Amino acid sequence: MSKLRLVVAALVAATAALLAPTAPASAAAAPRVLYYDTSRAAEFVAAVHQGAANWNSSVTSVRLEPVTAGRRADITVSAGNGWPYASVRSLGRGSIVMGRQAVTIGHHPPRIAAHEFGHILGLPDLRTGLCTDLMSGSSAPASCRNAFPTSTEAARVQANFATSRQIPAAVYAESAPR
Ligand SMILES: [Zn+2]
């Protein structure tokens, strides 16, 4: 190979390196941001923020943020006297009721909030009775304090938003174990 060809080859390689994106090709897209409104969550505001924070530390394809003035909320959270429930309109949109009846018998409000957010994020109930499962909900003992999704639950939510999965509208009502 001539000296000139070697120089040209080196220049081509250097240029290719310069043009290569600095971020890895697999870098995640920006998360979908969902705004939630706690203005009617009464005594549960802190618990709702905690539930949102737990999801935010578990997934990157979606982020739950408190709604700001002038912006329309994707998720409204209110307090009620019955059992908690989530009414899901579509993936990432719906309403949550923090039910005092569950709290009265000992269920942990941050776990309730994280569980109901789980429904809005596209997860169904899975009544395994296990405290380690977030979506086991009230089938786990009322003494359960775990308010984080398992890696499997987090992976499902991560995929739901990475692929903008379509989910049917549904109401998920919690209740005492049957
Ligand atoms: Zn549920």
TrEMBL record:
Question: Which InterPro entries is this protein grouped with?
Answer: MetalloPept_cat_dom_sf, Peptidase_M7
UniProt EC number: 3.4.24.77
- Pfam families, sorted: Peptidase_M7 (PF02031)
One CC-aspect GO term:
extracellular region
Q: Kindly report, in one word, the top-level EC class recorded for this enzyme.
A: hydrolase
Task: Tell me the GO BP annotations in alphabetical order.
Answer: proteolysis
Entry GO MF terms:
metalloendopeptidase activity; zinc ion binding
* Residues spanning the signal sequence: 1-27
Annotated catalysed reactions:
Hydrolyzes proteins with a preference for Tyr or Phe in the P1' position. Has no action on amino-acid p-nitroanilides
Q: Which UniProt keywords apply?
A: Hydrolase, Metal-binding, Metalloprotease, Protease, Signal
The family line of this record is:
Belongs to the peptidase M7 family.
Its recorded name reads Extracellular small neutral protease
Q: Give the source lineage, highest ranks first.
A: Bacteria, Bacillati, Actinomycetota, Actinomycetes, Micromonosporales
